[in-house]
Amino acid sequence: MDYKLLMDTAMLAGKMMLESGAETYRVEDTMHHILKTSHLEVVEILVVLTGITACISGENVAPVTLIQGIEKRGTNLSVIEQVNQISRRYCGGEIELQEAYDQLKRVESVPYPSALAFFIPLAVAVGFTISLGGSLYDVLATVIVGLALSGVMAGAETAGIDGLILDIGTSFCVGLMAVIVKSILGGAINLDTVVIGSIMPLVPGVAITNAVRDTLQGDYISGCARILEAFLKAAAIALGVGVAFAVFGNGIMGGNL
Amino acid sequence: MIEIGIKTIGFFIAVFSFSMLINSPKKYLIWAGISGAAAGFIYMICMEAGWNAVISSFWSALAAGLISHIFARALKAPVTIFLIGGILPTVPGNGIYQIMNYVLQNDRSMASFYLTQTLEIAGAIALAIFLMDTLFKVVRKGEWKQDSLRYIQKEERKEEEKW
């Protein structure tokens, strides 16, 4: 067996999963399964949010150790799913090691068509406004606010802005648009419902889920980092909307939000 | 009842599109949406029954965990795909907004009320997910084993037989 190729395959799978926002234990689990197919005595894997270390060693095999730093972190469930399928097929003996490696190399995210992708945040916002019990006017207002939200998110993606600044900027736009719409439509709409629905595409649902699962699995370092991420995102959203309300709310609404 | 139906559809639309936002594979979008709609439905039923938001969130997240684990095993996909959608109806977007709102109005007591409630809801979600994860870990030792694990165990068994 080509142990170096095995290590490369496992490391590539782990790297792609961690970069796509998989939970830490899932990355460790997948790499462990792949490396275990070598039937060596020593298989050690250490995954934290910022890097992976893996080592295999056996009686007649010199130790092979790889270190991989992880710099970009996003959320892309389709990549996780594809890597999962490949590793499952490899561990099940359906495909050879070389083929697994080649397939992993070819994995890429299948983005939704950009025309459709533009309206996704809008659809999320409208869906949540409906489920929060919004009236027809609320939904209408959310469509307007959601269009601005979609526009800002699409614009930020082309400009390459992400992270906290994006959260603050988009939620600021949500707050601003909501105040403007409220000042035009007046008492017909419920500002709370519109704003809560519209910030839902931004809330750190992924970060919260992963934070919980990582922490309770015992991966405390990754868990802490993700809890911090969730809190910062929530704070950024509150900050953006709050600034918009504080600055423009009083001017347009005369202090009667 | 009609209102709950409409809201459930709202949750379905929201979670379905949120799954697209995080780039879930196309074939699982419907299932993620169902997971979210079911969790939202349970949440609303609990609220109707007069329970508070924290307890309702707990039951909702518990239902989301159960459904997600079943879907993950039935469809052989990572459980995250369904779980993220499932807990979305209880993720405290409302809490974030209310905290910000009351801080802005200088109403410290209401702000700290919502801050505590938001933390409690987050805790309830965590507990629910943890319970379901643990439960399915136990069940997995029986007949529900995930495929990748079963393969490995088979290999190891072969190895033992050789010896």
Structure description:
- The complex is a heterodimer of chains A (257) and B (163).
- Chain A is built from 10 helices and 3 strands.
- Chain A is mainly α and 257 residues long.
- Chain A folds into 2 domains: 104 residues, no CATH class; 140 residues, no CATH class.
- In chain A, strands 1-2-3 form a 3-stranded antiparallel beta sheet, with helices on one face.
- In chain A, a hairpin with a 2-residue loop joins β1 and β2.
- The longest helix of chain A is centred in the C-terminal third of the chain and has 34 residues.
- In chain A, 50% of the residues are buried.
- Chain B has one domain.
- Chain B is built from 7 helices and no strands.
- At the A-B interface, α2, α3, α5, α8 and α9 of A face α1, α4, α5, α6 and α7 of B.
List the total number of helices of chain A. Answer: 10
In helices, the fraction of residues of chain B equals: over 70%
Q: What fraction of residues of chain B sit in β-strands?
A: under 5%
Radius of gyration of chain A: 23 Å
List how many beta strands of chain A DSSP finds: 3
**Sheet with the most strands, sense and barrel status of chain B:** none
* Rg calculated over all Cα atoms of chain B: 19 Å
What is the strand arrangement across the widest sheet of chain A?
1-2-3
Low-confidence stretches of chain A: none
Q: What is the overall pLDDT average of chain A? A: 86
The proportion of residues in beta strands of chain A is 5-15%
| Class based on secondary structure composition and strand pairing of chain B | mainly alpha
Number of domains of chain B: 1
Number of domains of chain A: 2
- State the helicity of chain A in percent bands: 55-70%
The average pLDDT score of chain B comes to 84
Shape of chain B: globular
The SSE order of chain A reads HHEEEHHHHHHHH
Keywords (chain A): Cell membrane, Membrane, Transmembrane, Transmembrane helix
Transmembrane segments (chain A): 115-133, 139-156, 163-181, 187-209, 230-253
Domain Threonine/serine exporter-like N-terminal (chain A): 9-247
Family (chain A): Belongs to the ThrE exporter (TC 2.A.79) family.
